[in-house]
Specification:
Blueprint: E1 2-6, E2 9-14, E3 21-23, E4 30-31, E5 44-46, E6 53-54, E7 67-68, E8 76-77, E9 90-93, E10 99-100, E11 113-116, E12 122-123, E13 136-138, E14 145-146, E15 168-169, E16 191-192, H1 207-216, H2 220-227, H3 235-248, H4 251-260, H5 264-274, H6 277-285, H7 287-296, H8 300-309, H9 318-328, H10 331-343
Length: 347
């Protein structure tokens, strides 16, 4: 076969179109940079136990490669090592590897299962970015760092167990993982990069941890991004965060929270929880905006509170809101308004 080997390093494989499977000779201790680059005919490569390192771009662009074994003696997986190997479905990283290189499995679109053994301490930047069919990842307790965009746009990843001992989650690490619902951030994490969980479904469950870390770092941009999802904050939690900001001298974050307290979603939440005169006075002056938001979010609690406040819903405006409810199929709110119109509304 077309192997070029020098001093134990497999420097190049000359592709033969009719050859689908190759076995690397036992004399090889290292697979060099780009050794199998864009060998698109290959479907399987057997790596001997003698190999201790896989170089950068070693198998990059082997789009039909389906099976690859990484021996227990491998200590290094280089950058882009398996980039765009679009037919690989599963991979096991042995305990001998300390770091999975940057972009190592970038764009492996068929990859659905990754098992990482104890011993690995770092998952590099963009290591599994665009692995859109990835559904199962096993991360061991030895991993300390998840790199920037490590699992970016892994859209089918639904659950992830992050181990106690993990210290850092890079920026955009899980950004775009739109089906990620369960991913508890361990207490050992001390640093989370910007937009690490943007576009996921697990923000709410981790809101306290994420915001506290942002306050520790006085990361105003992160909190500004986070406050755009108003469901994560109650008036009670905001009060706690304000005190924490003052205690930690996180004045940039403090400013973001103070601005957030002036928004319609926060004022509406505050009124529902506390019925404060200040919130009610503001709602009276801007009622259409609040009522439209309540209908849009199907917020029956808010609408019920509006009927109890008196003077917000009138003969002049209630019919318009009834039509909105019909148009948006907000049947519960519709019933509340019809009952109020029949029994509580006075000219």
């Amino acid at each position: 076969m077309g192997f070029k080997i020098k001093k134990g390093i497999l420097r190049e494989y000359t592709e033969e179109k009719d050859v689908k499977t190759v076995t690397i000779p036992d004399e090889v201790t290292s697979i060099g940079d780009g050794a199998f680059y864009e060998c698109t005919s290959l479907t399987a490569v057997k790596i001997p136990d003698s190999v201790t390192s896989i170089g950068s771009c070693a198998f990059s662009g082997c789009t039909n490669l389906q099976r690859i074994n990484i021996p227990a003696g491998v200590t290094e997986i280089g950058e882009n090592a398996f980039r765009e190997c679009q037919s690989i479905t599963s991979v096991t990283i042995p305990a001998s590897v300390s770091k999975i290189g940057n972009c190592a499995f970038w764009g492996c679109g068929s990859l659905n299962t990754v098992k990482i053994h104890s011993g690995v301490t770092e998952i590099g930047n963009e290591a599994f970015q665009y692995c859109c069919n990835l559904v199962l990842v096993t991360i061991p307790k030895t991993v300390k760092v998840l790199g920037k965009s490590a699992f970016y746009e892994c859209r089918n990843l639904a659950t992830l167990q992050m181990p106690e001992g993990l210290e850092e989650i890079g920026a955009y690490a899980f950004c775009g993982c739109k089906n990620l619902e369960s991913a508890t951030i361990p207490e050992s994490v001390t640093k989370i990069g910007e937009n690490a969980f943007q576009g996921t479904k697990c923000l709410k469950d981790n809101s306290v941890k994420l915001v506290r870390l942002a306050v520790e770092q006085d990361d105003a941009e992160f909190v500004r991004e986070f406050t755009s999802g108003n469901e994560h904050f109650t008036s009670k939690s905001i009060d706690e965060y304000l005190h924490l900001c003052i205690d930690k001298k996180a004045y940039n974050v403090l400013t973001v929270f103070l601005d957030y307290m002036k928004t319609v979603p926060y004022i509406l939440t505050d009124y529902k929880e506390n019925k404060t005169p200040k919130s009610l006075a503001y709602i009276r002056g801007h009622f259409p905006e609040f009522m439209n938001l309540a209908i849009e979010q199907n917020d029956t609690v808010a609408v019920q509170a509006f009927t109890e406040a008196g003077g917000l819903l009138t003969i002049e405006n209630i019919n318009g809101y009834l039509y909105q409810c019909i148009d948006k199929s907000r049947n519960e709110i519709l019933m509340i308004l019809l009952d109020y119109k029949a029994n509580g509304l006075h000219a």
